[in-house]
Amino acid sequence: MRNIKCGVTDMRKRVFAEVARLAYEGGDYYTRMEKLPYEIVPSDEAASRDSIFLERAIVGERIRLAMGLPLRDMSEHNLLSDGVEESAIAEKYYDPPLVNVIKFACNGCPTTHYEVTNACQGCLAQHCVNNCPKDAVSISRGKASIDQSKCIKCGKCKTACSYQAIIKFERPCQEACGMDAIGQDEHGRAHIDYDKCVSCGQCLVNCPFGAIVDKGQLFQLIHSIKRGDQVIAIIAPAFWGQFGEKVTPGQIVQAMQILGFEAVEEVAIGADLCAVEEADEFMSHVPQKQPFMATSCCPAWSVMAKKEFPGFAPYISMTMTPMVLTARLMKRRYPRCKVAFIGPCAAKKLEASRRTIRSNVDFVLTFEELRGMFEAKHIDFGQIKDIPANYEASAPGVGFAASGGVAKAVEEVIHRVKPDKEVKTVYAEGLRECRQMLRIARAGKYDGYLLEGMACPGGCIAGPGTVQPPEKSKRVLEQYKAAAPKANPLDSDYMSDIHLLHEDSEEWDRVSHH
User: Mean pLDDT across the stretch 244-259?
Assistant: First the structure.
């Protein structure tokens, strides 16, 4: 279950709020940081861990990561506030690794195995025994048991059981990782292979112990605002419904101005431009120059494709992502501004850290971190005045937020330009599905297709930085799409001044490539 009220989400919410409050109020960061774990966990008895000291130590590491600081080395004495002067600045990108395991917060869950539950009836048929290829299952005293030393984890016993009495036990973080990047260290605790990790963030929200945490720029963003920088927020289309179904876009704009943002723009306008460029690229390259084309919007998907299928790298669209397109538009329009992308994605933090992107995107925050800013400023949307929303993006541009939406938007553009052209598309959600889609493409079964990949099951509305359950977000997103006045990305108002995206307006060909 995603984004339901639980101890982990409550703790994340509290940490982000306190870090935001610390940044807004300023003062003696050293002393205040040392006190924060006691303010967040004020009791003298542990609520969920072995001791109150362990609970506070975990909260302390969460605070450091939220501020962009590294985990402390627990083998030597150091303060929670060590290095805070390096983060109390207005300009700081993420230092690797982005995704971190707080080792002493990890439960060290058992590794993948099959287990017989009390539902076993010790039946006469003994399908579990008869279907095991390694004689690992036996019946003793009226109940089946599995010899783990013989078991090859094929799952045939589970499939054969008439009572569904055999379960597959899998570590939640490993199950969620579509890159098989999570293993275990010598103590059985989670360990990330960063050569495989693409920072999709699914492990962050699937660890029931909250032991896996990503770094943040929340602290630095607020310092930039306090310094007087012109900070423009560009907000991903997945924001619909994130802060309450009754919270309007106008209220969000008003609330973000209270936070100190100069202006708020929709990333969906960049999605429109992205759809236009990818449509042009697809029509000119497939099948004349390449067998198929894959979309580029999801950074975790595109990094995965390049890692796992390096030969397909030329087939991934060279179009910039909607985040970068929108940021470049803002930078050209307001040369001295700072751009803060706010969305559902952990991988966007990694994307913004690339040298080619840094000059365009200064900060990346998740919806969870933005909610922390709202909490720090005691924003009550019930008391925020609504203002008319300026719907600038097309319905397909907004639809980028859900699985299948990117391919659909590109298809809409192509059909406007060439009504009779057949456009074959396929999409996958979740990195395991994405990898399977590319295996099928490697076999030549998707020649002539447009392939869309989304690292998060459900698309961006199910990203690790979201607040609401994906099914609720999808419902609200569909309502907004229905209200959008533009039916096609080609209707974008930004097509007329798209030259702002380029260094030399005389040499542009729609949208610059990355």
Answer: 92
